[in-house]
Specification:
about 190 residues; alpha/beta; 7 helices; binds flavin mononucleotide
């Protein structure tokens, strides 16, 4: 059974709330094992455990928090070249729209690329003018339905890719399973 880890840093709870909704989305795909952990709770064993990773950080000065960067730096010596090939995606909460959360997502994906992960974005729209091409971003916590659904959509897509590429369940491909829905679809 494919394994999905949602791993985040959150000081004030906003990125943590995103993680919860991302987990809900992942749970919509049957037969996927899901863990949600903050970097305070997680260890390198969790990274080894997962097939797919949604990695989240608050936007600090337009990039990832130092805590998140330190988490990954702490096991370069021991684990680099031992966790390649996992499927990764990113999420971030920022103070306000335009505050740099997409840059943070790119920085999170850069970390994952350094470890040999296969990172992806999502083409769907979860509501009017709301998409997640570089991962899902929020201002503060997700409140509106399209923001919550954007988080769920990222988690669902991660679980779908794990099902397709790790478990070989081609029927779970979003274009086959019909889960890639946009507001303009009938
Ligand atoms: C040190 C620090 C730097 C920050 N830098 C930015 C920033 O560059 N852009 C932004 O929009 N918000 C910035 N913020 C606000 C946080 O990104 C925002 O409050 C976020 O929702 C916090 O997420 P959390 O609740 O998961 O900790 C910063 C906050 C702190 C504490």
């Amino acid at each position: 059974m494919g394994k999905v880890l949602i791993l985040y840093h959150s000081e004030d709870g906003n990125t943590g709330k995103m993680a919860k909704y991302i987990a809900e989305g992942a749970a919509e795909v049957p037969d996927i094992d899901i863990r949600v952990k903050s970097i305070d709770e997680a260890s390198r064993d969790d990274i080894h455990w997962c097939d797919g990773l949604a990695l989240g950080s608050p936007t600090y000065l337009g990039t990832v928090s130092s805590e998140m960067k330190r988490f990954w730096e702490s096991f370069v010596d021991t684990d680099w070249q031992k966790i390649d090939g996992k499927i990764g995606c990113a999420f971030s909460s920022q103070g306000g729209w335009g505050g740099g959360a997409e840059l943070t997502c790119q920085a999170l994906m850069t970390i994952m690329l350094n470890f040999g992960f296969l990172v992806f974005g999502v083409t769907d729209y979860s509501g009017h003018q709301f998409t997640m091409h570089y991962g899902v971003t929020q201002a503060g916590e997700p409140r509106e339905e399209k923001q919550i659904e954007g988080c769920r959509r990222l988690g669902r897509r991660l679980a779908e890719w794990v099902a397709v590429f790790v478990d070989g369940r081609k029927d779970q491909h979003p274009l086959v399973a019909g889960r890639q829905r946009n507001p303009w679809d009938k």
